[in-house]
Every structure is written in structure tokens, then in C-alpha cells.
Amino acid sequence: MSKFPDDETIEAWVRLHRAQRSLLETVEGALKKNELPPLEWYDVLLELHRQGDGRLRQFEIGQRVLLSKHNLSRLIDRLEQQGLVSRQACKEDGRGYQIRMTKDGEKLLKQMWPVYGRSIQEQIGEKLNLKEITELARLMGKLLS
Predict the structure, then answer these.
(1) Class of domain 7-144
(2) pLDDT by residue (tens digit) across 62-84?
(3) What is the C-alpha separation between 55 and 69, in angstroms, rounded?
(4) 139/3 Cα distance (integer angstroms)
(5) 49-59 pLDDT tens trace
(6) What are the φ/ψ torsions at residue 137 (nearest 5 degrees)?
(7) Residue 39: count of CB within 10 angstroms of its CB
(8) Could you give the dihedral angle defined by the CA atoms of residues 42, 45, 51 and 52, in that order, rounded to the nearest 10 degrees?
(9) Global pTM?
């Protein structure tokens, strides 16, 4: 086995990155056109929603979000300033905080999903058939394992 990728492997790598960038730009454009905040806001709110009680520690959010984690602190600051999340002292760790979604955060999450969902459908659901979507999910899972 070679230590370096062949041309086909390099092409797959390039296309994977281009596809990801294109898909995310399309979603961001749709959100902006509908005067909604960036996808990273949705990403954080969705993880809080999935938790059930709407509370997570900041590091837990960082482990779960799909998008970049490097500015998570500032993002949570912005969400808090907009009244979409609140910080509460963590009982288990006096230095830490739990992030909790507010009712306004739930409302925004529900406003963003139709735009985001349509974008996913247009970019993947309408371009690939069910067999291709299943295979794509399987291949991505294999890369993530």
C-alpha cells in the first residue's frame, strides 16, 4: 500500500470538500435571503433542543455541533445577547455553566427549519435517488468510522 494517494483518491478528496462548501453556501444563502441568522445558530439550538431538557454544558455543545467549534464561546455570547439561550451556573462544576435554550430560541429554531430543510431537499433529495442517498450516507459513515 502506497503512502501517498492516487489521482482518483485526490479527486474524491477535492470533490468532497467542494461539495461540502457548496452545500453550506447554498444553505447560508437561503437563510440570509429569508432574513434568518447563520446556520451555526441553528446548529447550536438544534443540539439544545435534542437534549430534551434544553440544557448542555458548552463543551458538550462543542462535541455535538456539525460546524466549526473554534468560535463557540463568542457564538453563545451572541445567542445569549439575542435572548435565544441563557447561561446558568452548573451545579456539578462551580466554574462552569449550562447553556439553556429559551422560548425565543425554540421559536427561531422552528422558523429556520423549513428553509434549511428545503435546501437539503433541493441539494440532495432532488439530485440523488434513494439508492444513491443511502449509498452516500453509508460511504460518509465509513469515512467517519
Answers:
(1) mainly alpha
(2) 888 876 767 888 999 999 999 99
(3) 18
(4) 22
(5) 999 887 899 88
(6) -60, -40
(7) 19
(8) -110
(9) 0.86
